[in-house]
Design a protein that fits this description.
The protein is built from eleven helices and six strands. The protein is an alpha/beta fold and 340 residues long. The longest helix is centred in the first third of the chain and has 24 residues.
Amino acid sequence: MDCIATKFLVVLLSLWLSCIDAIQTGRFPAILAFGDSILDTGNNNRLMTVSKSNFLPYGRNFPYRIPTGRFGNGKVLSDLVAEGLGIKNLVPAFRSSFLKSSELPTGVCFASGGSGLDRFTASIQGVIWVQDQLKDFQSYIQRLSQEVGDAAKAKEIIANAVVLISAGNNDIAITFFAARVKKLRYNIETYTDQLIEWKTAFMQNLYNMGVRKFAVLGTLPLGCLPGARQMNGDLICLPHVNHGAKIYNQKVANLVVKFRQTLPDAKFVYIDMYNSLLDVIENPSKYGFRTAKPCCCSVMTPIPCLDSGSHVFWDFAHPSEKAYKAVLPNIVSVISNNLA
């Protein structure tokens, strides 16, 4: 009898330890990604747009060297965050022809390379406006409910999913500074105020649709992207563009604080992409890189480099997979500590 009791206790202890391990390694059931090319895993592939990357040499370091529509040489940030949080290794694009229903419960990507909070940003490139990504999200909710067989279960998954939002990069870098059309109506202060107004509405809509765990990314150091630096002979970062990015990022950080106060049943965290990547750009050797110049697909590098792992950037605007991995530990830690 004592032997049976001992075995029973051993089984219970084993189950308890398994639960603890599951909590520690996979505290979130799913990941959902909205916004731009920092997170996009292939939603532009079937669009009539030049903002595509489903061709070589893009994806040359991806498994089986497949160009999936990710804007980089391999995995992008959404994939790496999902992997770092123990959710899944790759985040499929919701609009992918190859999306399996079995992938829905662990999350998908709605982001569209080239998109922004400003409808104009998306329209000039023919990509999916951030606000329109909510329509895809609504379709996802319906498909998820069918897959799990229970609307309540689908609601629970969405409420506990980590939701990544990266929006504002293209609005500032392209629409405001490069295209200049918004300068006829706004200065950088008033334009970023408008972006925050649109971002507020977007996040409120996500909340109304059941999202409760928000990881809101700031912009990259936009004046230090290779495409910006080439405007200055690749000598220095463009200070006025970086200034605009910093103004916007501070307002995003303030918005996250405001949401924490007004929606206490949800969790919000700001992810500082600007300073983390800036340190990599300014100190490449510290992170195992040889140069902050792009490996591929720019005026500076018309012929792809042989070793993308030695470059901070893959192309004119997008970090390499290794660069994303350099800033990943802090991102995963911030999400785990604030959203779990």
